[in-house]
Design a protein that fits this description.
The protein is of the alpha/beta class. It has helices at residues 23-31, 78-87, 100-110, 122-134, 150-157, 174-180, 203-212, 236-241, 269-278, 286-297, 299-322, 342-354, 378-392; strands at residues 65-66, 117-120, 140-144, 161-165, 167-168, 171-172, 185-191, 218-222, 245-250, 263-266, 334-338, 357-358, 360-361, 370-374. The chain contains 13 helices and 14 strands. The structure holds pyridoxal-5'-phosphate.
Length: 397
């Protein structure tokens, strides 16, 4: 994505000079035998690489274990399920537009100011609000080398240019990010922990980055996996202390509500006000709001998911390491396993798929020699180790 040439610069339009195909001119255009004006998207939209979600099916395999989207293998809290089902009883009613109930629950649990919280249809939508509101043609959106691909996609949708800063051994490098900022930079995205690397940088480094940014640039700390980390507030204190930092969070990971599409952000008041002008009034569904509120209040369940994840993540990483397949220390609910080269990673992926184990190839993130494996339940982790052990011993069909 580095230095995408000409993004934001209007490209030559093949229809330039032809009459616009509005009602009054259609007849004349057709009479003259001209082709009707082609329907073309805005400049740069056709260049956007389609986001590839994690696969969920393997041809010819009936039972699969999906470890490709960092979902919670234990599912949501039973209280969230019950709230969802209750909300299903009044589907004809529009949802709350101000999300007051969910914002209050988030504020209480995290000790935050509810007026500085906004909810979105997943944190993807919040990333999109930020890019739409703050970046446009001629502006740059900076993110780190192996950062989440919705940053460049949302930047391009807004007509802005995505730019990457190099990482150091798959860790965000704050000096490189600072060096990548210029007068055109409007947004800097850092996921902490990052997807797909699973690594994170200290909050002090994030504070240094925020301090170094010019006045017209916002730092967005993406905390999609923050709940998996001990003694980490996801960057909330930094948001509270500064005017140029936003924290995004999601209900799709530890809360097990990926299918409902609910995310949120904590931001300075002026940024909340701006995002609310971009946000559709009913952007989160009523069952989504109800389930997310119940899930947020059930912190015992969150703690049990966190403990299970840490246990099986560390076991999985150690076992694979013992098989000659190292990974960086992950702080999230997945590990990024390194293979000697791209062919080996692809062969391992094909091998696991034969047994219905679907993991994620991450060549699109500049990591062609790696596979990202979501930490599943005990059975899933043991299956991965069993089949990777066979693979490493040379058992490839
Ligand atoms: C780093 C990161 N940010 C944001 C998201 C988006 O999550 P959602 O839109 O489901 O809230 C993801 C999802 O995989 C992610 O990995």
């Amino acid at each position: 994505m580095q230095e995408v040439a000409g993004r934001g610069v209007p490209r030559a339009n093949a229809n330039a000079g032809k009459p616009f195909c509005k009602a009054l001119e259609v007849a004349r255009t057709c009479e003259q035998g001209d082709e009707p004006m082609a329907i073309t998207p805005q400049p740069g939209i056709s260049d956007i690489a389609l986001y590839q979600g994690g696969d969920a099916h393997v041809d010819g395999v009936n039972r699969v274990i999906k470890l490709s989207s960092n979902e919670n293998p234990l599912g949501p809290s039973p209280l969230a399920r019950a709230a969802y089902l209750e909300a299903a009883g009044s589907m004809e009613v529009y949802p709350s537009s101000d999300h007051a109930g969910l914002r209050a629950a988030i504020a209480e649990v995290h000790g935050l100011d509810a007026d500085r919280i906004i909810c979105g249809a997943g944190s993807d939508e919040i990333i999109s609000f930020l890019c739409t509101a703050y970046a446009g043609p001629g502006d740059e959106v900076l993110y780190s080398e192996h950062g989440f691909l919705m940053y460049p996609i949302s930047a391009q949708v807004a007509g802005a240019t995505p730019v990457t800063a190099r990482e150091t051994s798959r860790h965000a490098n704050v000096d490189a990010l600072i060096a990548g900022v210029n007068p055109d930079t409007r947004l800097v995205f850092v996921a902490n922990p990052n997807n797909p690397t699973g690594t994170m940088i200290p909050v002090d480094d994030l504070a240094r980055l925020a301090e170094a940014l010019p006045d017209e640039c916002l730092l967005v700390i993406d905390g999609a996996y923050a709940e998996y980390v001990d003694d980490y507030d996801g960057g909330a204190a930094l948001v509270a202390a500064r005017d140029n930092v936003v924290m995004t969070r999601t209900f799709s990971k530890i809360f097990g509500l990926g299918g409902l599409r609910v995310g949120w952000a904590y931001a300075p008041g002026h940024v909340i006000d701006t995002m609310n002008r971009v946000r559709g009034p009913f952007n989160v569904s009523a069952p989504g709001l109800a389930a997310a509120e119940a899930a947020m209040r059930d912190q015992d369940y969150v703690a049990s998911c966190k403990a299970a994840n840490a246990r099986w993540r560390d076991w999985l990483a150690a076992e694979l390491d013992g098989l000659g397949l190292p990974s960086d220390r992950s702080l999230a609910n997945f590990i990024l396993v390194q293979f000697p080269d791209e062919d080996a990673a692809k062969a391992a992926d094909d091998w696991l798929r034969k047994f219905g184990l679907i993991v994620r190839r991450v060549a699109g993130y500049g990591l062609p020699h790696c596979l990202r494996i979501t930490v599943g339940d005990e059975d899933a982790c043991r299956s991965i180790v069993k089949f990777m052990s066979e693979f490493q011993k040379g058992a490839r069909a």
